[in-house]
Amino acid sequence: MSPHKAPDSSRRSDRSRRAIYDAALALVGETGYARTTIEGIAARAGVGKQTIYRWWPSKAAVLMEAFLDLAARQAEEAEGEGEGEGEGGIPDTGDLAADLRLVLRATVDELNDPAIAGPTRALTAEGIVDPDLGARFVEHLLDPSIQLYVTRLRAAQASGELRADIDPRIALELLIAPLTHRWLLRTLPLTHAYADAIVDYALGGLSAEPRGGAPRP
């Protein structure tokens, strides 16, 4: 007889954790954040709710970790398919406008994806009333993306495509804030044409005549 092999508890925990991630993301997408409960996540994942409470203090914490895991997996898949530049950075083809249109179009596609839109809306809204969650949301999800824009805009400054006196952190807000505003308020559809227009307006300016640089706030 072959010796009895003890169950691998780490593999069991990984399977349970993955099931909880998938359940949390699915429920938020189907029923919304307010109606998603720890009990519902546990039932969907096939685990006891005490398992969830042992690993996370709240459903917001579950959703945060599940969404981070989703983002990491999608980044790995994109790299495997040869998308992006470097380690998930914004492409640098030497044409800033084209590179920004590409990344803003990809952002539009993500925000229109129900699998991403539901959790992102939930975390955004909950982060407003929960400062600790909001800080983690900014640190782990927003800041890494913002830094990619800063890096690309600084490269454009170095190559002479952008004015040397602009603040990249302010400049990037001209690109991502309009998308976020329209997406959060659901005023009008998010489209690739809208993303292209944002890039054109941000890089070309709105004034009919060139003006001197405005003082920094």
From TrEMBL:
A Pfam family: TetR_N
UniProt DNA-binding residue ranges: 37-56
Keyword set includes DNA-binding: yes
Coiled coil residues, start to end: none
Keywords: DNA-binding, Transcription, Transcription regulation
Residue ranges of domain HTH tetR-type in the record: 14-74
Keyword NAD: no
Descriptive protein name: AcrR family transcriptional regulator
